[in-house]
Amino acid sequence: MKIWIDADACPNVIKEIVYRASFRTNTAVVVVANQAIKIPMTGLVSTIQVSQGFDMADKAIVEKMSRGDIVISADIPLANDVIAKGGYVINPRGELYTEENIKDHLATRDLMMELRDSGMMLGGPKTLGLKERQAFANKLDSLLAMHKT
User: How many Å apart are CA 17 and CA 70, to the nearest integer?
Assistant: First the structure.
């Protein structure tokens, strides 16, 4: 099992939580981005740099991941593809995307995109706070514990 980070939009604080969990559980992490990303110098963490372009990191993750891997991303279409391939997806706020909830998330995403495009809604999600970081760490720990048993 590996942890994959969709790193282009992943907050640094979330990457740090993943790195610490990786060291604690001896779990490999692959950081995928379209730019160079600084990572800890350890055999557990590696990077894949993809070319610039729409969804290139997402495509690389789905292509290379295996059933049971964990993906860290807030990208709903990517989450849908990962779930279809048998993986787990946690967003940086600690929410686990599942077969049961991904279609609702896709519909909400599409609605929000329409509202933003029409100018009826401005701005993005709230700032990632301590509560969200803790929820993320807890969800990641529970998934890692489930895999290690």
Answer: 14
* HEC readout, 86-133: CCEEECCCCCEECCCCHHHHHHHHHHHHHHHHCCCCCCCCCCCCHHHH
Closest alpha carbon to 70 in 128, 9, 6, 17: 6
Q: Which of 76, 78, 73 is nearest to 92 (CA)?
A: 73
Nearest to 70, CA basis, from 109, 97, 42, 46 = 97
SS3 138: helix
Q: pLDDT per position in the chain (149 positions), as tens? A: 999 999 988 999 999 999 999 999 999 999 999 998 999 988 999 999 999 877 899 999 999 999 999 999 988 899 999 999 999 999 999 999 998 877 876 666 556 666 666 776 666 667 889 999 999 999 999 999 987 75
Which residues contact residue 71 at a Cβ distance below 8 angstroms, ignoring those fewer than 6 apart?
Answer: 3, 4, 5, 6, 61, 65, 78, 79, 82, 87, 88, 89, 90
Contact 27, 21 (CB under 8 A): yes
Report d(CA 70, CA 144) in Å as an integer. 9
